[in-house]
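Quarterly update from the structural biology core.
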Amino acid sequence: MYFCTYILTSIMDAKLTLKLDKQVIEKAKEYASSQKKSISRLVESYLKTLVDKGKSQQEDDLEISPFVKSMSTGVKLPADFDYKKELGKALAEKYQ
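Predicted structure, tokenized:
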């Protein structure tokens, strides 16, 4: 008697482009290397943790890992900050 089991898995990876401070990227690369993981897997793991905690949590209730806190620049931006608009203003001022 033979039993055959087939496990079909569908891996649906997609690309995501993030804009981050250079120092954050360098620290993340060092950390990822020390953990023998890719930055993509670290980010995916972190985001999965957030999603698994529940979608109804308020932003203030989210726990941020010490590693992510260590990468903070201390700059606070308003929730409605439009970086494209601000970049456009800065470039217009520079080339006037």
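The helical segments are 22-34, 39-52, 66-70, 83-94.
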